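I keep forgetting this: the sequence line spells out the residues, with the fold written below as integer tokens. I include a record here:
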Amino acid sequence: MARNSKQKRKANIASSAFISAVQADPDALSCLASNDEPSFIKSLLRLIRKNAALRNAAFRGPPNMRTFISWCSNYQPMSDTLSTALKDRLNHVAATRFAKRDFLKRTPLSWIPQDTAKFLSSLPVIFISRPSSPYPPENYCIAESDAIYRHWEATLLTDKQPDARRKRSSLLHLDYSLLSYNLGPNESAIFRDPTTREIIAIIIRNACREPGLLDWADSIVADACKERDSIRKEDSGTLAQTGYSAGARKKGRFDWVLNLRSTTERSRTVAAENDWKSSALFAVFWQLAKNSMAPEICDDFELFLRKKHLKRMDANGQLTPQSNRGPHANPSCRSLRAAESSLKTSLLARDHYIKPPPHTPRPRIIDHGLLDIQGDYVVEINSRTFKFTNAELAPPAGVMGENYSRAIHYEKQPHKWALSWTVSRGAEADAGCHFYIAEYAI
């Protein structure tokens, strides 16, 4: 009992020391007011380095914003500057919730199964029979015009190959008359086999109509292709692997990819940040696919993942849910929502803050058996940061490409379906680099 009282006194001394330091520091108050937790933690680290009392109090490191907010709810007397910063933070949080709600409404991320079914029923269904032989044929690069043929002829047929062991790809002028179907650049469709009635492919144009999300995705892909080696050096452009890998052929090992172009400290730091952003991007892509595609497509992935007991793409552990993360899972600390509620009560006595719109709260259920597929990540849209907590993460591995193309080939993969999302295309339709389903001459 005496030991618990002593620990409680130490905790109270530590909380008072941190609150006193923060309310006297304009930078820390600014980070608190804008709800910028990473910058707030950096400010606390700076204060710890300058203040001996804080160094003694921070035996487990600086508190996160959740802990600091809970401390403030019971702290008296509170300075006007700290009170103003906390009110500004509440206003910022409320405004962000408004913006996040609007953002979700503009994308399929908030769709329920009925929305998905309605959307799929609006797409034209095209039945295509399998031709006697694939077209375009295997191991051919496709030129859709004389200009494209001349541009790539020397590169493909005579120039030095990155890997001389591989057979050269040939170059073929596309004969449009041999195609079973040519889907236009602004058309969506569901292709089915008339005999089996099975889906061949689903193509959705403008699957995401949120420009801010596309800009965010495009920047992450560009950074990844800049920092990482391409896994197919014999092809044009870059195709960078991200997520987990089965390792080298000679020595298989399931682990996070190691494919940096540079191993300097700066490159490792940039790569760690890109791991985090890439995993967030793939989580968004996965949710878009689950809410836009026919159920059997994503079910194929999930059945494979469950069968093999594979991890999800979690930025090598960086996206682990806070509810399952050691330093953040302090049972003695009230939740952030509870701390905010207490603060609102005390701050309303002095002033008002922006109240969120009334809504019917939905019960939030966290299945602890699913914690290995859930994680916390953020999405940055038009200078706003939206956090997704205990959200489903993407399958463990993926690739990001820039200006990438490959000859007609059979893609080897351990499950039936594959997903692809073009986040930006700067070239016109006649510039080439189109996608072919040669098995059905589409």
